[in-house]
Amino acid sequence: MNNKLILAKQDFSFKSFFLQWEWMLILLFILVNIINASLSPYYLEFNSLRDATMTFLDKSFIVLPMVFIMILGDIDISVASTVALSSVIMADLYNMGVPMELAMMICLLVGTVCGLINGILIVKFKELSAVIVTLATMIIYRGIAYIILEDQASGKFPEWYSFLGWGYIGGIPFILIIFIVFAIAFALLLHKTIFGRRIYAMGNNVTASRFSGVQVDKIKIIVFTLTGLMAAVTALFLTSRMGSTRPNIAMGYELDVIAMVVLGGISTTGGKGRMIGAIIAIFLIGFLRNGLGLINVPAQVLLIIIGLLLIFAVMVPNLKTYRDKLRRSN
Amino acid sequence: MTEKAMSKVSIGASIAKFRELGLLVFIVLLSIVVQLRNPSFLTIENINDMMTNTAILSILSVGMMLVIVTRGIDLSIGATLALSGMIAALTVSDYPDLHPILAILLGTLIGLICGTILGFLISKGGILPIIATLGLMNVFRGLTYMASGGKWVSAYQMPTSFKSIATSKILGLNTLIVIAILIYIIAYYFINHTRTGRQIYAVGSNPESAKISGINIDRILLLVYAIMGSLSGLAGVLWVSKFASAQGDTAMGYEFSVIAACVLGGVSIAGGSGKISGIILGSILLGILNNALPLINVSPFWQMGIQGSIILIAVMINALVKRGVDRNHLMRRKI
């Protein structure tokens, strides 16, 4: 019965606002592509568009579980450091003679453990927000990566490993196929399972969820662990694409990931948003970066644009509620 | 069972009472250990160097404490520091006759503008501090690179008068230390003896009741982030003057040191509590650690991991102490 109530409330809010938001995203997406196409004559070629997806999809694996975290009303800023740590450990183990397959498994394991530690700390220390816990682990994980590799690069991976970042299956980038599989799985998990509904319930009201029998702590730990695992998946693809790794790999990814989630219409206070919005936002920001890169916009200007985009995306829904509040008080 | 609970209570409560003393003892012990390992630690030269470094850290800690007291966090201060330091450096390299005090004011003004924008986004825009500062951090960092065109401003481009801000002395004390002491005196008066200062704590400990009792929360938040921005701007000028170089990545990640100094000093991340005496000791301890680790041959690559662990352990201890104090209060109520 409880689930039904929440469901009804969700339906209402989707119709009133979030459907519009996703339409707006699609419009923005088309707009970005029109601008890009007019700026660079090579932009609209199929090959160039297809290969563009390969350059930005690596971080999109983190976006999927980050949607869960932000619907819970939490945030995880340690993801980029988790990517760095798992990538560095994988490269270091491989160069010490561990077979590549095993090193990749350990990479996934390291990411999972990083996420698990975040989850346990957040659940055991309820006084501490996810912000401060993941801030601390962000520094620690990156710090361990620096302790392992210092300022060196590590690489020389086997030939076949580059397939992850550069390979095609039937003309479609391998990374795109994997992303689609993961995106469908995560969308189903969020929208079609009890687990997903409970995440929405927790995002709306943790206390009420606990009283109605949801194992709040367990769900939180699972979600953070999942995020660590997906950060390790990102590490696999990113390292393959770069061909080598450094402790400062994936620096600043947390900004891109959070910007994509927020732009996708997931409310920063939790409880609202849909997976499809975040997926559109991944492609929106990805193609925006790609287009700006084609016309040689420097990386620093890109930073400014993504930063402003993030703030803009959070502001718009807030301004709307602010206006509603004003109207109601009048 | 009650006896066990009692002992737990007394531990938690006593740590809360003697936190400052404990920090002081720890600082003394650390100094002795480092001195035994490397005799050049407690030389006048090194102490002076350590104090000036700590001065910048402690100036920023004041602002960060106010931000954390209102339940916020500011990750953009490293970028604000770099931006205002860079613009001040570019200005003095173009106008070498500019009085150093004007350069300091210029940097502070730029920091104030950055902080006000941030405060406006958080108070009026209703954006979570973590997201707003994460976004603006990148905007300010990008602006720093754009302002300098990706180049450095090196020592030879800066006039001697500007570089001497950090080397000159007032009443026998380094100017940086004097500025830090002045800021601490003003901050002490401001947060303990003015209405606005107390309102900051009220907003942090319970926003709802603060609102009901007529405190303008938006104004307080705006003020807090504006103060943080101005202090970062000031620190930016001092930083550039001290190291005689302004770069695009100046003070990258320095916000973590500042947050570590605050949580070490007992500023509660849940808001509403934090003392000036605590953050002084927190900054000094962190300043000593930053200075001492290279002296006892700890690789600089360990520094990041150590700093992160300090933050994590400090916030965990703070949380446990608070649990102890709360339980203590509950027990007293029962009796």
Tell me, briefly, the overall form of chain A.
Answer: globular
The value of Rg of chain B in angstroms is: 21 Å
CATH fold topology of chain A: ABC transporter involved in vitamin B12 uptake, BtuC
- Biggest β-sheet of chain B: count, sense, barrel? 2 strands, antiparallel
Terminal residue distance of chain B: 16 Å
Strand proportion of chain B, as a percent range, falls in under 5%
Give the structural class of chain B: mainly alpha
Which fold name is given in CATH as the topology of chain B?
A: ABC transporter involved in vitamin B12 uptake, BtuC
What is the level 1 CATH name of chain A?
A: Mainly Alpha
DSSP helical segment count of chain B: 14
Class derived from helix and strand content of chain A: mainly alpha
Distance between the ends of chain A: 36 Å
Q: How many discrete structural domains of chain A?
A: 1
Strand order of the largest sheet of chain B: 1-2
Question: Would you mind describing this structure in some detail?
Answer:
The complex is a heterodimer of chains A (330) and B (335). With 330 residues, chain A is mainly alpha-helical. Chain A has 13 helices and two strands, in the order ααααααββααααααα. Chain A has a two-stranded antiparallel ribbon with strand order 1-2. Chain A is globular and about 65 Å long. Chain B has one domain (23-31, 40-322): ABC transporter involved in vitamin B12 uptake, BtuC. Chain B has 335 residues and is mostly helical. In chain B, 47% of the residues are buried. In chain B, β1 (169-170) and β2 form a beta hairpin. The chains are: A mainly alpha (330), B mainly alpha (335). Chains A and B meet through α5, α11 and α13 of A and α6, α12 and α14 of B.
